[in-house]
Structure prediction request, 189 residues.
Amino acid sequence: MEKHILIVDDSPTMRLSVSFCLRNAGYRVTEASDGKEALQKLQFMENKGQSPALIITDINMPEMDGITLISKVKETELKFLPILVLTTEAEESMIEKGRAAGISGWLLKPFQPEHLLWAVKKVVWSK
Amino acid sequence: MSEREEVLEIFFSESDDLLKLAEESLLALESTPESISDIEQLFRSIHTLKSSAAMVGFMNIS
Prediction:
């Protein structure tokens, strides 16, 4: 069965670019435009007895930012779900916040499709 | 439509929205220059435009 990935980013251009990259590699994708919508989508999946294999999230987003989303997910039953950050944010203090919140990796935009797929495979298959 | 064309179409539409948001923030800041929410909105819209432009390969804009 194809692995399901939740993409969280407020930029439609970025969501579509990541979606194409992952769909072309055989993954199933759900999109959310900020942390709040991501939590709603996760709840919706849980109600259907499903959960994604991975979350890929941006950091700077309206409504709910990526670090808050990660912390909230880690408080739920999905705490072992791998989370990759995909952002333009390269400040060490922010990366440290991500590490402290329990992320599996920190990727920078703009991404190269092969780099993204490599990082995704690494966390999805080691689950 | 190719994937590239589809992404570009979304990028142009997103750019319009982001420039409108940036303009709104700048106009609001003329009367309330201390407004943190307007400064944040201005920052976020330009920041997102910069990273989306880089994603579609428009490095001069980025």
User: Anything to note?
Assistant: The helical segments of chain A are 12-24, 35-47, 66-74, 92-101, 113-125.
